[in-house]
Amino acid sequence: MKSPFVLPFTAENLRAMYTQTDVPTLAILAQELVDRGLYTHVPFVSDENAWPNGNYRYKVVPGNHDLHVNTPWAISDDVASFLLEGYPKMSKL
Questions:
Q1: Going along 1-93, which residue ranges are E strands?
Q2: Phi, psi torsion values for 24, nearest 5 degrees
Q3: What confidence score (pLDDT) does residue 5 get?
């Protein structure tokens, strides 16, 4: 018999826990998972205004959970830009 995994946290617990951080955060969401409704119970994931510190961004990209493995070029520019954001321009890295 297959038993579904149930998280020990409510959606409100997750929102309170994650949105309070002041660490800059970039979420990459796979379109196939969005289409399947995997984030419907945590709407704050796709609402940048739900993060009171203004430090959260997200992007939905084509693919599934393994998009970072199967098509890393689909997210590499976004991740690189995010990591370099806020730092002074350097002539050499």
A1: 25-30, 56-61
A2: -55, 135
A3: 64
What's the pLDDT tens digit per position in 11-36?
898 899 899 988 899 999 999 999 99
Q: CB of 70 within 8 A of CB of 59?
A: no
Q: Where are the domains of the chain?
A: 24-84
Q: CB of 21 within 8 A of CB of 55? A: yes
Under a CB-based contact definition with an 8 Å cutoff, are residues 44 and 17 in contact? no
Q: What is the pTM of this model?
A: 0.77
SS3 state at 33? helix
| 72/14 Cα distance (integer angstroms) | 28
